[in-house]
Amino acid sequence: MMCLRRLAGTTFLSLAIGFFAPLHAEVAEPLLIIHHVRIFDGRHPTLSPDSAVVISGNHILSIKPETGSAVADDPATRSINGGGRVLLPGLIDAHVHLSIVVGVPQLRDYDPGYLFARAGVEARATLLRGFTTVRDMAGPTFGLKQAIDEGLMEGPRIFPSGAMISQTSGHADFRQRIDTPQRRWSGRIEGLERLGYGLIADGVDEVTAGVREQLRLGATQIKLAAGGGVSSVYDPIDSVQYSDAELRAAVQAASDFGTYVAVHAYTPTAIRRAIDAGVRSIEHAQLIDEPTLKEAVARGVYLSPQAFLFAADSPVTPLQTVAQRAKAKVVAEGLDQMMQLAQKYHAKVAFGTDLVGAPQMFAGESREFGARLRWFSSAEILSQATAINGDLLALSGSRNLYGRLGVVEVGALADLLIVDGNPLEDIRVLETPESTLRVIVKDGRVVKQSL
Ligand SMILES: [Zn+2]
Questions:
Q1: pTM of the prediction?
Q2: For residue 428, what are the domain limits?
Q3: CA 304 / ligand 1 centre spacing (Å)
Q4: Residues less than 5 Å from ion ligand 1, measured at CB
């Protein structure tokens, strides 16, 4: 009875909102037709002939050859004339941290409300660069995701991981040196852990609970630190983090909720242990060797490296300690071999940027395209940022509440871009989105239109 009443109330509310605010209605919406575009579908390195894409609500209803006839002036139909330009799926960034808006050590110096407001600004800028979806790989973005999903703010769809789960002295042990040595021994939980940037968990029971805590908050996938990091203070780059049993416990808890674990890891030992435990996505992976990469390929594991972060002209803020700078050097030197191996063995390479800490860093997101040209063709890079990343997001199973992403196909979500130039010939047309991205459609709604 109570259920019925609640259902009836919800329906009435939806209809009322639909009546007054058609953009967020659940009632039938007018069709949006995009005419005269050549389509890159996300998977095939070719463009379609002159075509029209019909969008109903938030998904693609049909794709058909352009007839050439003028659009009927049906008041229930809106249309955009692409003028023969290229239409592609909305871009996906598989490794962001929208809530790390200042350097990690400085996060403690600001009011959390200020940090989250800044995250909202970065979310809007991300969307206007053409990234209609992001996978957030550590940090408190559940509220931001909700506000964007509710239409209160402009931003990409967010697949949040919540806090990065780390062992004591692991990559997400954000404690300062003077903090209580071990929080369980009468210490307080450190500030960044309280805010949800990281979570320290040791042993099978704590790791299991830590994973379940993130799932409880709405994580669509789980992020663990499985090996040494560059920016972290207490872990050598060659340190292997988490035992087999701990990793398997995390994978079990995630898969019990229908989703998967991604790990931060650089070295072959850390990556191999994670793959053996059932981890599906390796973040960074720069120091991987040939046998381990072949194993990752054989098991369909995604590699999620970054190129622009290590480029000479990347605006990365200088690292503080000699040890951190030494670690950065090792990892940067590994990038070339890793990418060559990934190219040689056709690894599933995700497109992710991992740029954090300042507006000029976030603004470098589009530079990842050109930075990959050293190893991949424009068409390969474009697939990484669309269909391949879409397949990676699909590993979240039914924790993905949105639908099919990264492709232009009937039934897929209507996240679409119209761009000047041909990104299959030169991916760098996507590096100046302010001028070259002429139309951005997210969830069937026109976010930008400058045609
Ligand atoms: Zn990261």
A1: 0.92
A2: 2-89+407-449
A3: 10
A4: 137, 354
